[in-house]
Design a protein that fits this description.
Among the domains are: 212 residues, Alpha-Beta Complex (Fumarylacetoacetate hydrolase, domain 2), CATH 3.90.850; 162 residues, Glucose Oxidase, domain 1, CATH 3.50.30. The protein is built from 16 helices and 29 strands. Strands 17, 18, 19, 20, 21, 23, 25, 28 and 29 form a nine-stranded mixed β-sheet that branches. A six-stranded mixed β-sheet has the order 2-1-13-6-7-10, with no helix packed on it. The radius of gyration is 30 Å and the shape is elongated.
């Protein structure tokens, strides 16, 4: 511990006297701290390198709490719980509050930080599903917050010039500084102080840079924080943690069990490549809070194209796709809850697999694929759900419909059932379904994956496909063809309207539908006149 011998608890410097008189001094877990922390507050994202790896840069800092019982000293072991695979390390700069802070400004905030040291915000991704955001189970376990070993006096370091490095089995895995944080350390302290009182001994974990990854039993992780530009270049010393295998099995009767999928693996390891997963398709998802990376990759419809699609009947689009050799592009068997509403948007996909009890136990709870899809859908997108034509349970209900509507989704298409059908209809978002059914999801389906190629109503749908629906049904248009198809369909609509007007005048269909050369000449000539052009444009 780096501190002067005459500093006392509450001073902005060291903590020797406080530690000497603390009741927790005999507890080796808190040997590197002035006292047992009243609270530990962790920042979700603060380093640009980590934010870019996650595919999103938040506008404001967000936080979660860790219990003080999770603190561990340098040299401790950490258990990877039995039945889990994704224990990930996160080397971080830890701030220890030296004087009480409440409603302080960013300019004042650093004066309330007493010490700086190293920390490791361990987490088990297998346990995130039910607690994502709170991280209670995934990050709150005993030993999951190693801190220390030495404290740096906050008065002698520049908060914008701290460095954090992490080694795994001696190999450097993380190396970054606080110079370009999304949220400077002083801002974090000030922001927290306007919501709660920061008390002496409280710890703030300030986020991790890129390089966080998975470790297994038998490996050793070391973290060090230093201030290279400060006098004497003070260091926290190496915070050493050994990973061991836990033996205690989880009791399924008490709560949800560990569950992993490829999204969790990619996030825990840092990338799909590091996790040994195949490269994802351009529009594949890496789910997360808010708009997903897949959503950001999907093209949106420009206003002009959307307006033309809204004017074009599905039947006309179907005819044009057939002319181009595409016959299997309709989502069959679904009907609209709002027959008078037009559906136009870009597909984002959700896949259900047949229910199997063990798989539903591992994939059906928490922030499962279904909830991720509805939480990440973007404005103007259509959630398309593969339910294998199985309408024996609901694939969504009113809460999810409200969520999609609130996020600006263009609509929902499912070849399964809908629960709470009256309430879903009342939400107002266009929904196409095989019908109503009162049963919950788990009767027939397991939510499995998002933003993958799926089969719905006899056709294939990929993320980014253009979806158009009306009272005739729903059609899928490849993005590369949509401009060509909609313009040709509108031109055909103008032509059909002209033919219909001639039939209404009493002309026989023979030679007119389709038009022979004589009728074609009359039509072309009329289209050259302002009135004829206007009539065509009105369609």
């Amino acid at each position: 511990m780096t501190a002067t011998p005459d500093q006392t608890a509450g001073d902005s410097g060291g903590a020797a006297a406080a530690r000497a008189t603390s009741a927790d001094a005999i507890d080796p877990r808190f040997a590197s701290l002035p006292q047992r922390p009243g609270k530990i507050i962790a920042v979700h994202l603060s380093y640009p390198s980590r934010a870019d790896q996650r595919g999103r840069r938040p506008a404001d800092p967000s936080y979660f709490l860790k219990p003080s019982s999770s603190v561990a000293a340098s040299g401790s072991d950490i258990e990877r719980p039995a039945g889990t695979e994704l224990l990930a390390f996160e080397g971080e700069v830890a701030l220890v509050i030296g004087t009480t802070a409440r409603d302080v400004t960013a300019a004042e905030a650093w004066d309330h930080v007493g010490w700086v040291t190293a920390s490791n915000d361990f987490g088990v991704y297998d346990l995130r599903a039910n607690d994502k955001g709170s991280n209670v189970r995934s990050k709150g376990r005993d030993g999951f917050t190693p801190i220390g070993p030495d404290l740096l006096d906050a008065r002698v370091v520049d908060p914008d010039a701290l460095r954090v490095r992490t080694w795994v089995d001696g190999e450097l895995a993380q190396d970054d500084t606080t110079r370009d944080l999304l949220f400077p350390l002083a801002q974090i302290v000030a922001d927290l102080s306007q919501h709660l009182t920061l008390e002496v001994g409280d710890v703030i974990l300030t986020g991790t840079p890129a390089g966080s990854s998975v470790v297994a039993p038998g490996q050793t992780v070391e973290v060090e924080v230093d201030a290279p530009t400060a006098p004497g270049a003070p260091r926290s010393g190496r915070l050493v943690t050994r990973v061991v295998a836990g033996a205690h099995e989880f009791d399924a009767s008490l709560g949800s069990l560990p569950a992993v999928d490829d999204t969790q693996r990619a996030e825990a390891w840092g990338s799909r490549e590091a996790a040994g997963l195949p490269a994802e398709q351009p529009a594949a998802a890496t789910a997360g809070a808010g708009a997903s990376a897949a959503s950001a990759a999907r093209p949106s419809l420009d206003p002009s194209l959307r307006e033309r699609l809204e004017r074009t009947p599905v039947a006309a689009l179907s005819g044009q796709l057939r002319k181009r050799g595409l016959n299997n592009v309709t989502i069959d068997g679904v009907r609209p809850l709002h027959p008078g509403a037009k559906l136009v948007g870009v597909a984002t996909t959700l896949r259900f697999v047949p229910n199997r009890e063990d798989l539903f136990a591992s994939h059906g709870g928490g922030q499962n694929a279904q909830k991720r899809a509805f939480d990440a859908v973007g404005a103007g997108e259509v959630i398309v759900i593969e339910a294998r034509g199985e309408a024996g349970s609901g694939t969504l209900g009113d809460i999810l419909a409200i969520r999609a509507h609130a996020r600006g989704a263009a609509g929902i298409v499912t070849d399964g059932g809908v629960r709470d059908v009256d309430a879903v209809t009342a939400v107002g978002i266009p929904v196409y379904t095989r019908g109503a059914h009162p049963a919950v999801l788990g009767r027939k389906h397991v939510p499995w994956d998002v933003d993958v190629t799926i089969g719905v109503g006899g056709t294939t749908v990929q993320p980014g496909d253009v979806i158009v629906g009306d009272a005739d049904g729903v059609i899928v248009i490849p993005p590369s063809l949509v401009e060509e198809v909609v313009d040709a369909a509108l031109a055909q609509e103008d032509e059909d309207a002209w033919i219909a007007a001639r039939v209404a005048e009493g002309h026989p269909i023979e030679g007119l539908f389709p038009m022979n050369a004589a009728w074609r000449a009359k039509y072309d000539a009329e289209q050259q006149t302002p009135a004829g052009h206007k009539n065509g444009a009105s369609r």
